[in-house]
C-alpha cells in the first residue's frame, strides 16, 4: 500500500498533459482551486486507510468531473413535456426562427437602436415597433416596456398618481409571484377605489364612484381565473362611454393579450387587442411573451396624447427594452402580417394547434424506443390534457397525448423524474396517478427526447 507520496504536487499536475488540457478548457485559476480541494480529499482518504496509488489514479477524473459540473449553467436547454405550453418557470414562449436570427444579429453588431439613419440624428428605440403595433392593433400610437406588469405600473403612475383609480372587486387579480393588483396600484401612487362585488359589478357602481379626484378606470381581463354563476360585469364599450363622459382615462389590461382570433385554430376565443382598441379603451396593455409568442415585453397601445405622456414619465427609462428584445419583437410582430402562415412559423401557435391525432402517432412511435432506454420501467401511450399556461384560458384544456411511465415501488415516478432532471438536457414531465407523464405536445423532434435519454 502506498501513501501520500503517490499524490502529485500542484505544480506537477498542472504541467502534466491532463493538467494542460484542463487549463485550456477551464483556466488555470479554476483548475488550481479545484485541484487543491481534490488533493485534500485524497489525503484524508489515505489517512483513513485508502491506497495512495488508487487515489492518485482517480484524481484527474474526479477533478475533470468537478470542473465540468461547475462550468455547466443551470440555464441549459431542456425539454418541456409538462403539458403546459407557456410554462412560466420554463421561460414561456419559444421564439420563432426569425426572432432568434434577429436577436443574434443584434447581439453581434452595432445597430440603429436610437439612431435615425435618414437624418443622422438621434432616434427613438420604440420607433422600431410603433408602426407594427399600430398596424396590428388599430391604435393611434404605441410604446413598449419590459413586461406587462411594468406596462400597467407606468400607466397607473402616469394617470393615477395622487388620484383615484376605480376597479371592480371582481378584477382585483393576483398573478404569479404574489403580484397583486392592489399592491401595484399602491406602488404607482394611485388610490384604489373598489366598486361592485366579487361576482357582480354594474354601470352605476362606476358612475357613483367617479369624483373630481378620479384619474382613471381600470378594467382587468381575468385571464388566470373564472367567476361563474350569478355574475355581471360592465362590457368594455359601455365602460368607455362612462369614462369618456367623465373625462377620465379607461385602461384595459388584457394580460396575456392576443393579436389574432384563436378560434381560427380551434381554441376558445379570447378578446384581441384590436377589439379592445375598437371598443373604446383609451389605453390597452398586454404581454409579448404569452399568447403573442415573443420575448418578454409589455405593450401599451392607445391614444397618441396619452402614449406621449407615458413616454415622458421618468419611469419609462427604468423599464425600457434592450436592443436584443426589440429586434426579436420586431421579427415576431412581422410574422403577424401573414396570418395564413402564422401557425407554421410561430412555435407558440404551432404547439397550441397541434392535432391530438398527430401527437398520438408520435407517442406510439416513441413508446418502444423510450422503453428500451429506461430498463426497469414500463412505457405506454396515454391521452393527456394540455394547458396553455401563463394565466391564459385557465379553465380550458387541449386534448393531447404522451407517454405514461411506471416502475416498481410507489416512489418510482418521483425517482425517475429526479433522474431526468439531472440529464445534460433535462426532461421535465408531470406526475399523475402513480406514473410519470411526458406530454408530447411541445416535442418538435423525436430525436430530441431519444438523445436526451441516451445521455
Structure commentary:
Residues 4-43 form the L-seryl-tRNA selenium transferase N-terminal domain. It catalyses: L-seryl-tRNA(Sec) + selenophosphate + H(+) = L-selenocysteinyl-tRNA(Sec) + phosphate. The protein folds into three domains: 4-71, no CATH class; 79-89 and 351-454, Aspartate Aminotransferase, domain 1 (Alpha-Beta Complex); 97-341, Type I PLP-dependent aspartate aminotransferase-like (Major domain) (Aspartate Aminotransferase, domain 2, 3-Layer(aba) Sandwich). The protein has 19 helices and 15 strands. It has helices spanning 10-15, 17-26, 28-47, 52-71, 97-108, 127-137, 148-160, 181-187, 203-209, 236-246, 273-278, 304-312, 315-318, 323-335, 342-345, 347-352, 356-373, 412-421, 446-454, and strands at residues 79-80, 141-145, 164-168, 174-175, 179-180, 191-195, 214-220, 249-253, 283-287, 298-302, 377-386, 398-407, 427-428, 430-432, 435-439. Helix 2 (17-26) packs across helix 3 (28-47) and helix 5 runs antiparallel to helix 14 (323-335). The longest helix is centred in the first third of the chain and has 20 residues, at 28-47. It starts with 9 loop residues before the first helix and ends with a helix. The chain is 43% helix and 16% strand. Strand 4 and strand 5 form a beta hairpin. With 455 residues, it is an alpha/beta fold. The strands form four sheets. Strands 2-10-9-8-7-3-6 form a seven-stranded mixed sheet, with helices on both faces.
Amino acid at each position: 500500500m502506498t501513501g501520500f507520496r503517490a499524490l502529485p504536487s500542484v505544480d506537477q499536475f498542472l504541467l502534466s498533459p491532463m493538467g494542460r488540457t484542463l487549463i485550456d478548457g477551464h483556466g488555470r485559476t479554476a483548475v488550481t482551486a479545484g485541484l487543491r480541494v481534490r488533493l485534500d480529499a485524497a489525503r484524508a482518504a489515505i489517512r483513513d486507510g485508502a491506497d495512495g496509488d488508487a487515489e492518485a489514479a482517480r484524481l484527474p477524473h474526479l477533478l475533470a468531473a468537478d470542473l465540468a459540473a461547475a462550468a455547466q449553467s443551470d440555464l441549459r436547454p431542456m425539454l418541456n413535456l409538462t403539458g403546459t405550453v407557456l410554462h412560466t418557470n420554463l421561460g414561456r414562449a419559444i421564439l420563432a426562427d426569425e426572432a432568434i436570427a434577429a436577436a443574434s444579429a443584434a447581439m453581434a453588431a452595432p445597430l440603429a437602436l436610437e439612431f435615425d439613419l435618414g437624418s443622422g440624428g438621434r432616434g427613438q428605440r420604440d420607433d422600431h415597433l410603433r408602426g407594427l403595433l399600430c398596424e396590428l392593433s388599430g391604435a393611434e400610437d404605441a410604446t413598449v416596456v419590459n413586461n406587462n406588469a411594468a406596462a400597467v405600473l407606468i400607466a397607473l403612475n402616469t394617470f393615477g398618481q395622487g388620484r383615484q383609480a376605480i376597479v371592480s372587486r371582481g378584477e382585483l387579480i393576483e398573478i404569479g409571484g404574489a403580484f397583486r393588483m392592489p399592491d401595484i396600484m399602491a406602488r404607482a401612487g394611485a388610490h384604489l377605489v373598489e366598486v361592485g362585488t366579487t361576482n357582480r359589478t354594474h354601470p352605476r357602481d362606476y358612475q357613483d364612484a367617479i369624483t373630481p379626484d378620479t384619474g382613471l378606470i381600470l378594467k382587468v381581463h381575468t385571464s388566470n381565473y373564472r367567476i361563474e354563476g350569478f355574475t355581471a360585469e360592465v362590457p368594455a364599450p359601455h365602460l368607455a362611454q362612462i369614462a369618456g363622459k367623465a373625462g377620465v382615462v379607461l385602461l384595459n389590461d388584457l394580460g396575456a393579450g392576443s393579436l389574432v382570433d384563436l378560434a381560427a385554430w380551434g381554441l376558445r376565443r379570447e378578446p384581441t387587442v384590436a377589439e379592445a382598441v375598437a371598443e373604446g379603451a383609451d389605453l390597452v396593455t398586454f404581454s409579448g411573451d404569452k399568447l403573442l409568442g415573443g420575448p418578454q415585453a409589455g405593450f401599451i397601445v392607445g391614444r397618441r396624447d396619452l402614449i406621449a405622456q407615458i413616454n415622458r414619465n421618468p419611469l419609462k427609462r427604468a423599464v425600457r427594452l434592450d436592443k436584443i428584445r426589440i429586434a426579436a419583437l420586431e421579427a415576431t410582430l412581422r410574422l403577424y402580417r401573414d396570418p395564413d402562415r402564422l401557425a407554421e412559423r410561430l412555435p407558440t401557435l404551432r404547439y397550441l394547434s397541434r392535432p391530438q391525432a398527430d401527437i398520438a402517432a408520435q407517442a406510439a412511435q416513441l413508446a418502444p424506443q423510450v422503453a428500451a432506454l429506461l430498463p426497469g420501467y414500463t412505457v405506454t401511450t396515454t391521452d393527456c390534457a394540455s394547458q396553455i399556461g401563463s394565466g391564459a384560458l385557465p379553465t380550458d384544456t387541449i386534448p393531447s397525448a404522451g407517454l405514461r411511465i411506471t416502475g416498481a415501488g410507489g416512489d418510482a415516478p418521483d425517482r425517475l423524474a429526479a433522474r431526468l432532471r439531472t440529464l445534460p438536457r433535462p426532461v421535465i414531465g408531470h406526475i399523475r396517478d402513480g406514473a410519470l407523464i411526458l406530454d408530447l405536445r411541445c416535442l418538435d423532434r423525436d430525436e430530441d427526447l431519444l438523445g436526451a435519454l441516451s445521455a
